[in-house]
Structures are given as structure tokens and as C-alpha cells.
Specification:
The chain is α/β, with parallel strands linked by helices and 292 residues long. It folds into two domains: 140 residues, Quinolinate phosphoribosyl transferase, N-terminal domain (Aldehyde Oxidoreductase, domain 3), CATH 3.90.1170; 140 residues, TIM Barrel (Alpha-Beta Barrel). Helix content is 42%, strand content 18%. A six-stranded parallel β-sheet has the order 6-11-10-9-8-7. A four-stranded antiparallel β-sheet has the order 3-5-1-12, with helices on one face. Helix 8 links the parallel strand 8 and strand 9. Helix 8 runs parallel beside helix 9.
Length: 292
């Protein structure tokens, strides 16, 4: 039987604790108090089933460890074989994994398993498209905190499966000073001085700017590690990269699309962050078919 750990993409780590917690929540939501009354009522307890998970479209797979953990939690007697691992590009019609064993467990876990793989593969597939449009450049594609509540670790994992990179996971792992922070704190220099005085040497400080004048002000302070260039056009992004001259990392954000990403990659910025990777990814079309 294939274990979830053997499926993890080597460049994308998903904590076993995150897997266990997510699966437990999802099954509790679906099974409720009485369990799968349809399968209990219609399927003999000793019935066996052979099922195949099939990709109905081309794309990048993510979420198989969660699918496998779902079925294993319902029945340790299920034999599970995965044909691909997370991060793999597949064509339409490819068999992703097979199940053999107690039929009730297969039928009960079907929707939860497909929900995980469909959602996360959709994110991985969209991310891979952004990455493909920047091939040959040094630009890194990053996600944001615009994630489904409770599923952030999983969705950020899916971004990595698609070849992207993660922005901060929460408010506690990096300082990102937005326009409202600047307004309340009294200006660019004031807010950066406060931030630098507060953090330890391992905490990065990034600040958002809307104009080149603000960028110049940030550069003059020498207190920021990175600058988020908010909703700037191609010409302004190019000028920003010339002004920075590598003194800070530059991140473009706001209104980033597949149509614009290739051109952004030519401007000289280091990163692009897009909330669309997680909040607008279409569900990946995947199914579980019973083999008779």
C-alpha cells in the first residue's frame, strides 16, 4: 500500500499534522452523526470494490496525500496504489490512483477525496500556467494570504506543487507594511523606523508603495528588505527596478493576470504575488470510477 509520505513532491512539504487535521475536519463535516446512511443501507458490509481515480483534464496533480489519508482513515484494509505523485503533470484520461477493498469505505470517502484533489490540483494547475509564462526568467510566482479560511496550508502547498513560491503564511512570520499602516504610523520613514526597532534580525520587513516617489523615500531610509510595488504599469515597474538597483527585493502585485505576467517578467522585478492563484483557481476535473 502506498503511503501519503511517498507522494509528497520533493520540493513541497505538507505536514502530516496538517493532513490529519484537514481529513478529520472534512470527514466529520460529511459524515455527521449517523454516517453514510446511503452506503450503510444499500451496500453489504463485506462487499468489495475496485475503483480508479481518473483525471478528466490535463493539468498538475496536488492533494493525493489527503485523498489517500481520507480512505485510510475510513478503512485500513483498503489497498491503494498511486500512479503519480503530487506535482506531476498529467494528460486527460490518466489513472491517478486505484483502490481495492471495502466498498463502503470507497463510496463514503469518494467525495471528500475528490474535493481535496480537485481543489488543490486546480491551484497547482493555474500556478503552473503562470510559471510557464515566465520560463527563462528569474521571476518567482508567489501566492498571497487570500486563501480559503482553514485551508491555507493546503492551498499554499498546492502553489508549490505547481512550481510557485509562498508569500508569508500569516501575520506572524514577516512584516508587511501596507498603505494603511503608513497612514496611521505617520509616514514611510516613521513606520519603517518603528518596524526595524521592533523586529529581530531574522524577520524581514517589506513595505508597499504606490508611486516611484514613495520608492525613493524607502530606498533613502535603507530600512526595508523588500518593496511591494502596488498596481504599477509595465513602464513604472521597469523604472522601479532601475531605481532600486538590487538594493531591495522588488515584488509586483495587483491586477496580475496570465495575459500580463510574461511582460512583467521583463521589467526586472524579483517576485510577483497574485491572489488569483488561490482565490480564483478553477476546480480540477477528476472522478472516481468503479470498475466492475
Amino acid at each position: 500500500m502506498t503511503t501519503p509520505a511517498s507522494l509528497i513532491h520533493p520540493d513541497a512539504f505538507l505536514s502530516p499534522l496538517a493532513i490529519g487535521e484537514a481529513v478529520a475536519r472534512a470527514l466529520d463535516e460529511d459524515l455527521g452523526r449517523a454516517g453514510d446512511i446511503t452506503s450503510i443501507a444499500t451496500i453489504p458490509e463485506n462487499a468489495k470494490a475496485h475503483a480508479v481515480m481518473v483525471a478528466r483534464q490535463a493539468g498538475v496533480i496536488a492533494g493525493l496525500p489527503l485523498a489517500i489519508a481520507t480512505f485510510q482513515k475510513l478503512s485500513p484494509d483498503l489497498q491503494i496504489h498511486a500512479y503519480v505523485r503530487d506535482g506531476a503533470a498529467v494528460a486527460a484520461g490518466v489513472h491517478v490512483l486505484t483502490l481495492l477493498g471495502p466498498a463502503r469505505a470507497v463510496l463514503t470517502g469518494e467525495r471528500t477525496a475528490l474535493n481535496f484533489v480537485g481543489r488543490l490540483s486546480g491551484i497547482a494547475t493555474l500556478t503552473s500556467e503562470y510559471v510557464r509564462h515566465t520560463a527563462g526568467t528569474n521571476l518567482r510566482i508567489c501566492c498571497t494570504r487570500k486563501t480559503t479560511p482553514g485551508l491555507r496550508a493546503l492551498e499554499k502547498y498546492a502553489v508549490r506543487c505547481g512550481g510557485g513560491f509562498n508569500h508569508r503564511f500569516g501575520l506572524d512570520d514577516a512584516i508587511l507594511i501596507k498603505d494603511n499602516h503608513i497612514a496611521v504610523a505617520g509616514g514611510v520613514r516613521a513606520v519603517l523606523e518603528r518596524a526595524r526597532a521592533h523586529v529581530g534580525h531574522l524577520v524581514k520587513i517589506e513595505i508597499e508603495v504606490d508611486t516611484l516617489d514613495q520608492l525613493r523615500e524607502v530606498l533613502d531610509t535603507g530600512l526595508a528588505d523588500a518593496v511591494l510595488l502596488d498596481n504599477m504599469d509595465i513602464a513604472t515597474l521597469t523604472e522601479a527596478a532601475k531605481l532600486a538597483q538590487g538594493r531591495v527585493m522588488l515584488e509586483a502585485s495587483g491586477g496580475v493576470t496570465l495575459a500580463s505576467i510574461a511582460e512583467i517578467a521583463t521589467t526586472g522585478v524579483d517576485y510577483v504575488s497574485s491572489g488569483a492563484l488561490t482565490h480564483s483557481a478553477a476546480n480540477f476535473d477528476i472522478a472516481l470510477d468503479i470498475e466492475t
